[in-house]
Each structure stands twice: as C-alpha cells, then as structure tokens.
Write a structure and sequence with these properties.
By secondary structure, the protein is α/β, with parallel strands linked by helices. The chain contains 17 helices and 25 strands. Helix 3 packs across helix 4 (124-139). The protein binds fructose -6-phosphate (F6R).
Length: 610
C-alpha cells in the first residue's frame, strides 16, 4: 500500500520519479504526486487524484525539473483520494511523503493548529509534515528534528523529507513500513521496494527501524542519535533487471504463474541434502529447533492463511504436531488458548502485512518462540522473527499472489517432512520419496498444467458469466479450494466460496440451482467415492460441475460437465498442482470479463495498514 520514491543526484529527477511511481503502482494506490526541488531551494509540487499516467501528463506539461525530488502513490486512509490529500505535503520548511498511518494525528492536528499551523488536507501526513517542521525550526538540524518528531508520532511510517534550504539532501526515517535506500554512479535513491530501482541500480541499503538516513549525490549516511554520522556501504541485490518487468508476458500474474515450477523446485531442493532428506541448515535452523515446541500457531492473512491450511494438513499428517491456523487480524487481539510450548509461525510474502506483524509481536511478547516464512528479504516480519525461512520466490508484482503462495506451501511441506523425520514419525526412505516428489515431480506437473492453458480457457468460457461459483473438495483439496476461490473472486469479481465437499448439504446446497457452477477438486483417491456422492448431489439440483481430478478418478465423464485431468501426484502436495490449474482458470475468467488482472479494484499488494 502506498509507494515512495526519491532521487537526488546529477540527473533530472522528474522522469526518474514518474517511472519509479509507475513501477510501484502494483502496491495499490488511488492518487499520486511528486515534489521537485532545485539547488536554490525552489520547490514545485505536482499532484493528482488519479493514476500515475495522469500525474505524468500533468508533470510533463510543466516546464520545471530539478535534480532532487520525492514522489508518492497514496492509498487513501485519512481523507478521500483527492488531489488535496495526495502527497507530497508541505510545511513551512519541509515537504514530505509518507507511507503508513499516524494513529494520533487528531491530537497532533489540534496541537499544531493551536501553534499556528494551517491544514489544507484531511491527511495524517500533513500533521507529520508540520510536526517535523516544528522540530526542525526548534532544533536546526534534520536528524535531530526527525528523531524528535518520531517521539511524538504514534503509528507506522516510512517518511522521506526534503528541507529545501538544505541543498541536495533527502532525509528519511521508517517504523514498521518498508523503505530502502540505494546508490548509483549518478546519485542516490529511496524507494518502498527494490523492483522500483532495478532500472538504475542494484546497490541497496535497508535502514533499520527508527534510523535516520540522508541521501545525497555522494551516497547514503546514517545519522545516529548521539550526533555521529556513518557512511553506508550498500550491498548488491541478487535480483536481475527482468525481476521488475513482464518479460514478454501480457501480465505480471501470468509471468509469475510461469515462474512457479522453478520457484517450487528451488524452495524444496534448497532444503534437501545429498541423501535426499530434509535439511534446513542453510536457513540457520539447528536440529534442536525441530524438537523445541509442542505445537505450531500459524499467523497469516489471505492466501498466506490458505498456504497455512495446507501446511497444517501436511504437518499434522506427517509429524503429528498440532497446528492451528489463525487469521492475523483476529489473532492480534484474540489469540487462541494454547497448551504447551507453541511456535508462533508467521507467513507473509511481503513481510510487511500489518496484522501479521502485530500478531508476531503479540506472540513474542507472550514469550512464544517465533519463526517466519517470508519472501521479501529483510522485511519487517523477517527482522523481528527469531528465525526466518525465506521462500526465495523473487519479486511478486501482481496483486494476486501465485508463486508467493506456492513457495509458502512448498516450504511448509518441507517443514512437515523435516518434523516427521526429526520426531520419528516418518521413515527416512518415505521422507526421501516425499522430497523427490516435491522437488522433482510437482514442479514438472505444474509446468505441464501451465502448458495446457488452452484447455483451461475452455473451462473458463463455460463459467465466465457466472454470478456465483463454488469450489468443493475433501482432504488436501479442502485447503486447496479456499485458495482457488480467493484467486477467482479477487481478480474476476465473481462471487465465490469454498467448502469441504461434505459440508455443502448443511446449508449452501440451497443456493445450487440450474446452471450454478461448482468446481470439484478430486486429487486424493481416499475420497473419490465421497466426492462422487457430493458431485451427484450438486448435479441432481442442476449444478454445472467442472471436475478437476487426477487421472485415476473413476468414470470422470459421469460426474463432470467439463473435466480437467491432472497427473497423479502425491496427494499431500496436490494443492500445488490443483491451485496452479485454478490460478489459470481465474486468470482466463478475469480476461474474458475484461478485468484488470494485475491491479484488481480496491486491493493493494502490501497491506501495511490494519
Ligand atoms: C491474495 C493475496 C493476499 C495476500 C495477503 C497476505 O492473492 O495476495 O490475500 O496473501 O494480503 O499478504 P502477505 O503474504 O504479503 O502477508
């Protein structure tokens, strides 16, 4: 949510800022703006209550550019998505952009108004701008002003500030919100994430929480509370330039679906040793860790919760370790009662999700050991968990997660195998078979599914006009169905729900009438008879069944109005294959309905507010 970009150096800033904002669009936003400031302190702010393309037209029509500037994409929280509320927001001696939420903004607005500051927007950010201005006026030093302002700010923030009178400098501070700094031969940058900068540089620095930094053409400096200043040497990111572009695909989502087989393979094989057994030593996790808890409490949001549901299934089946899966927004206020020593396991692609972070902090404060499964390296949740397992999916730009989810599932499956071996519930040869299946067969099957896009498009055509669509499954297909359903509704706007197939007749079956589409997942032969019965119940009421089943499902043509046959997989890992098929199904339905696949309405990629 929201994106920050900043540049200072020998080049003109306007184009760099506008291109940077375009590459941050995926994070979700509804208004945008830039501020340009030249060496003499002349400042020009350009904003619009719409897309970055509109901002670019407006900015390019103005004959002003400078070598220093900050830009922002805003996702409205305090006040509507209007031009007046768009960032940057200026005070007397500074102009700022801000991601996050200032919880005490009403008190600050009252206090600052009483001190003579005038507000021209409804935002919390403007209060932060005036606060920083007040502290700067009193202390005469940007670092002192930012540290002092931070003491008054409650909430979360990443803030970039230009003090026009301080030539060439851009200052920044963050708390619970992402912000990176970077250097290149011709200047320095700030951004909310790395892909926004890959066209310019791969030399990245991640400021710590509440650390004040300053970027100039010469590089990055860190300003400590005791007044000392340190020059920062950024590190080279592993990400290549194509990590941030569509690489010939029509959409980022399609590109990321295609990246799944490799991503799953990497996530699994990175944790398999030469004996084909699970090994998390490269994650820095000791053998003792696997014996150090009685149960696991997963804390996550959205698709990460759905990955957690698959993880629960696999871990409980292979290792007998009890797992609860908790929606982070609930857990953070009402954590469940627990028995024994519980590992709090946060799962997050972005590593920034506010509720998941808060849940992790709560678990920590209650004395639980913590771990996190994260994609974004160095993100807030990764920094705060006692140990981190990186999924290594690479940048995920489409709002709807695909490879992010798949790699979370792959890591959880590896954890299940590892726990099974460590706790003696899984024999070594069976563990090796499962490792082989996850690292070799599953990626190959997902590749095969992706190659059958034309077949899946036909399934999509048959249901594209539906108002409602239900996914049903049993066993491993049950958690898989939850993710399939979310994928469909978020990108195609078709209302959808997922049910344990046996649950349908306890209420929802009343919604099934002539033509109601139901997607039935059947990948585990233990449940084929039961699934056949549930499908019959649907068809008896006129429901239209899309059957997605493995090739050993008996007489599929008697059950499915349309059928998509999957290769026979290890059932525990089958969600990786069936969800891939449903990701493509959702993608095709969204295309047929003319939806903006990569940027679904109302949604943001990184949900950094509550
Ligand atoms: C759905 C989706 C979201 C995220 C959720 C958590 O496609 O992407 O449901 O899974 O917002 O995000 P992370 O994993 O970044 O914490």
């Amino acid at each position: 949510m929201c994106g920050i970009i900043g540049y200072t150096g020998s080049r003109k800033a306007k184009k760099i800022l506008l291109d940077g904002l375009a590459s941050l669009e995926y994070r979700g936003y509804d208004s945008a703006g830039i501020a340009l400031c030249d060496a003499d302190g002349a400042l020009r702010t350009i904003k619009c209550g719409g897309r970055v393309s509109e901002l670019a037209s407006k900015a390019n029509a103005i004959d002003f550019d400078a070598n220093r500037g900050i830009g922002h994409t805003r996702w409205a929280t305090h006040g509507g998505p209007t031009e007046a509320n768009a960032h940057p927001h200026a005070s007397k001696r500074c102009v700022i952009v801000h991601n996050g939420i200032i919880d005490n903004c009403l008190e600050l607005r009252d206090e600052l108004s009483a001190q003579g500051y005038t507000f021209v927007s409804d935002t919390d950010t403007e209060a932060a701008a005036h606060l920083i201005d007040r502290e700067y006026a009193a202390l005469g030093d940007p670092a002192k002003a930012l540290y002092s302002a931070a003491r008054y700010l409650c909430g979360s923030y990443a803030i970039a500030v230009i003090f026009p009178e301080r030539s060439g400098e851009i200052w920044a501070i963050r708390r619970d919100n992402p912000l990176i700094a970077a250097t290149s031969a011709d200047g320095a940058f700030l951004a909310s994430d790395i892909p926004a900068l890959l066209a310019h540089t791969r030399m990245i620095y991640r400021p710590k929480e509440n650390e004040v930094i300053c970027i100039t053409e010469a590089g990055i400096t860190k300003h400590n509370t005791d007044g000392t200043v340190e020059a920062i040497v950024p590190e080279e990111t592993e990400l290549g330039v194509t990590a941030a572009d569509k690489d010939g695909y029509d959409h980022f989502m399609l590109k990321e679906i295609h990246e799944q087989p490799d991503a799953i393979r990497r996530a699994a094989s990175h944790r398999i040793n030469s004996d084909m057994l699970p090994d998390f030593s490269t994650d820095g996790i000791s053998e003792e860790f696997w014996h150090s808890f009685d149960s696991i409490s997963i804390i996550a949001c959205g698709s990460a919760t759905h990955a957690g549901l698959v993880g629960r299934y696999v871990i409980e089946k292979l290792a007998g370790v009890p797992v609860t899966v908790n929606t982070a927004s609930e857990y953070r206020y009402d954590p469940p009662a627990i028995l024994g020593k519980t590992l709090a396991l946060a799962i997050s692609q972005s590593g920034e999700t506010a509720d998941t972070l808060a849940g992790l902090r709560l678990a920590k404060s209650q004395g639980h050991p913590t771990a996190a499964i994260i994609n974004a390296v160095g993100s807030a949740i990764a920094r705060e968990a006692d140990c981190v397992i990186y999924t290594g999916a690479g940048p995920e730009i489409a709002v709807a997660t695909t490879k992010g989810y798949a790699t979370q599932v792959a890591v959880l499956c590896m954890m299940g195998i590892k726990l099974g071996v460590a706790r003696g519930t899984l024999a070594a040869d069976e563990a090796a078979r499962l490792c082989r299946s996850l690292s070799r067969d599953i990626p190959a099957y997902v590749s095969e599914i992706i190659g059958r896009r034309d077949e899946i498009r036909k399934l999509a055509v048959a249901v594209k006009d539906a108002d409602d669509l239900y996914f049903i499954g049993r066993g491993p297909d049950c958690p898989a169905a939850t993710e399939c359903s979310l994928k469909l509704k978020e990108i195609s706007y078709v209302h959808s729900e997922a049910y344990a197939a046996g649950e349908l007749k306890h209420g929802t079956l009343s919604l099934v009438e002539e033509g109601t589409p139901v997607v039935a997942l059947a990948n585990d032969s233990r449940y084929f008879d039961k699934m056949a019965g549930n499908i019959r119940e649907v068809r008896a009421r006129g429901g239209y069944v899309t059957l997605i089943c493995t090739d050993d499902f008996p007489h599929p043509t008697e059950y499915g109005d349309s059928i998509f046959v999957l290769p026979k997989t290890e059932p525990l890992f089958s969600p990786l294959v069936s969800v891939a098929a449903c990701q493509i199904l959702s993608y095709e339905i969204a295309l047929l309905r003319g939806c903006d696949v990569d940027h679904p309405r109302n949604l943001a990629k990184s949900v950094t507010v509550e």
